[in-house]
UniProtKB/TrEMBL annotation:
Domain ATP-grasp: 481-698
GO MF terms held by the record: ATP binding; ligase activity; metal ion binding; protein kinase activity
Domain Protein kinase residue range list: 1-209
Signal peptide limits: 1-24
Natural source organism: Chlorella sorokiniana (Freshwater green alga)
Keywords attached to this entry: ATP-binding, Ligase, Nucleotide-binding, Signal
Lineage top rank: taxon: Eukaryota
Name listed for the protein in its UniProt record: Carnosine synthase 1
InterPro entries membership: ATP-dep_AA_Ligase, ATP-grasp, BL00235/CARNS1_N, Kinase-like_dom_sf, Prot_kinase_dom, Ser-Thr/Tyr_kinase_cat_dom, Ser/Thr_kinase_AS
PROSITE patterns listed in its UniProt record: ATP_GRASP, PROTEIN_KINASE_DOM, PROTEIN_KINASE_ST
Amino acid sequence: MARMRHPNIVSFLGLCALPPCILTEYCSQGSLCDVLRAACTDSAKAAGMTWQLRLRMALDAATGMLYLHRMKPPIIHRDLKSPNLLVDEHYRTKQSTGSAAANNPIWLAPEVLQGHPATAASDVYSFGLVLWEVLSWQLPWARTPPFEVWRKVVNGERPPVPALSELPGPDTHAFSGLGAYLQLMRECWAQDPNVRPTFADICSPSSALKKGGGAAPPAQEQKIDSAAFPCVGIPEGAPLDAGAADLAADVENRLRLHRQGSLAGSVPRHYVGSVDYELAPGSLRSAKEIFPASLGDKAAHNFLSEAVVRSLPKALSTAERERVLASTPLSPTLNLLSSMPLDRVNSRTSEGARLRRHVLRGAVVVFITAGYSSKRFIFERAKELGVRSVVIDGPDSWSRHLVTEGVVEKFVGLDMGDADTVFDRCLDACHKIKKEMGDLDGITCFCELAVPLASRLCERLGLPTNSPQAVDSARDKHATRAVMEEAGLPTPRNMLITSRDVLERAADHVGFPAVIKPIHGAASLGVLRVDSKESLAAAYDKVCEELAATIIENGVVRQATPEELAKAKSKGLSANCLMEEYLDGPEVDVDLVFSQGEPVYGAVTDNWPTIEPYFNETGSNSPSILPSYQQRELLELAVKSCKSLGLQIGVFHVEGKYTSRGPRLIEVNCRMGGGPVRTMNLLAWGVDLVEEQLLASAGIPSRPNVAARPLRNIAEYSVNALKTGTLKDLAVLDKYKGRPDVLYANPLVETPCKVVCAQDGLPTWVCEVMVSRGNIHEAIEYVKQIEQEVQQAMDIE
């Protein structure tokens, strides 16, 4: 059960040995059987039982079964019936546990009653009986003895279908899809299992459950460009066309090159010895940069901090911005672009990609901070594209060595310690770079704290950028909520908490369960779920303590060690928190590329359940397994959210959930996502977010040549410690090296080391694994299997 993750499967939360029991999510409406029987006796509930709702609940049940049948190996429910279908407070229907010993003849298929094993087709038969219940609001064979039920079913009899005049429901007489519904019901309970539909048929767009008014929106309501968002409605198994085959070959070639070093970060072995401090290993989530003790307090001068962000100047006025643009000549890149046929440059073809890369080659691009050393792949890709890269970072940054290696052209060391002067000194550095290397084509960054600084530098220099107002609103979660609410977009109830004094008002306004989070931040630090007013004060204190012990290093947010707490004040996050309602449902990442104010690429990646109450990430998969209409709604909300904030160009990492009330936003990040985000978009869809961000920073139109179906099916797992103690080693990872379907299996800690589980604090990420398989469900099962093997092999004392 713990391996099952789907919005229409009851979530497994834990188990208890004494007394023996399991813990699952709570579904407040009880079972589907309870809901239908209540409608028979309660006129108010009967009035709400429209056919739209009934079809949606039936489709939910079928969607959950489709997920089970598509698992590897397939899971046969054996006990599908209305008492085992649970309904939550928003009337979402979820499959609960079946039983290998199921023996109630009411829902059992005739072949099972005759002693044959249960199959996928026998589950479909049981679903046909559920459809009869949804139709009649009655229990099948209610007044028939069990043996008589057995005889009738084996002989081909079924529960009688009531006359139209006897059917319940407020809109049954006006329901035009009743005939198709009855036909589907009869097909499901057909005597011959070989002629029954599959759950893939039942959930298809042409099914009576959808054509009759189910949850999926009509096709004409699609508002997104299929060329930009091909992940919606993928024709499974469709062959690659010639263009897509070229794209796949290019991605596979890059994958082979990266595996010579490390796909995750490509810090080569010889590189570590060339610096005088310890680097992060070649891993996507690692963030360990340890400067020598001899630097003392100077180490803090190497990192951007919230103090720098707070000291930044206000955005220019419209008139000031227009004066800057009027006095700024076209950059060399834009001059070249203006001489080229824009229809070909803007095409989503191999030729279009070649022309855009031709324009980008030779561009002078300034990077505001390098991030931690595992972001090296960004600069390697820029080098491959012919970009003349300049890095402005702390004087002791690991990135200074990229100059001697020929990866970047220039490094500018800038003391970050004097927060109030960082902006002016950065601007001076840009002017000097311009004199030395020629006109700048763009300024960019891949680190959260650097985004406000980079946008203001671009504004002063007349370079392509998102406005500082848009960037600031996106970084401030409370401001984001206000902007979205003003734009009429769905917004969770929320309230800004500045002190303990407002906790009671926040509790009354937001309600429970709720989440407390810092208005700025990353990596789930300071994010905590709270379930009652009684626990709110303690939870708020805990978040404040965690924020006070938070430090930021090279764009990485992490908790300070006890020794670092004394230095945390100069780098700590703001104590202002946002309290907002807890969002149920599956969490996703939506990665977007905007060009000239419009979205040109978007893909949904499923995020797996986090480690609560801290919301520590676990795993993800691409392509998404959510229904295509849910992906479409998530994409539309992500796009509208970015537009409402005023974002125009670049790569955005949008986090959201598909809740029981539809899609909801968690946050918008005005940068490429960290961790495996770039890798997953590249391998699944052939879109390199690094390249797209570089194009945007130089003002070059972006029209990525997106694969029409996934090039690879990717699943990854960030393994969290399940026990607090000392982890001796991670030798278990060695056996996965060299496997063609394991793209990487990297440690995230150096052993032996102390690790923490969720019961004792923010869990420790121990290692990360990424796999690729023939279909996405196989990939998900495979990486979860590896995670279990790693957990069993880890020796924590």
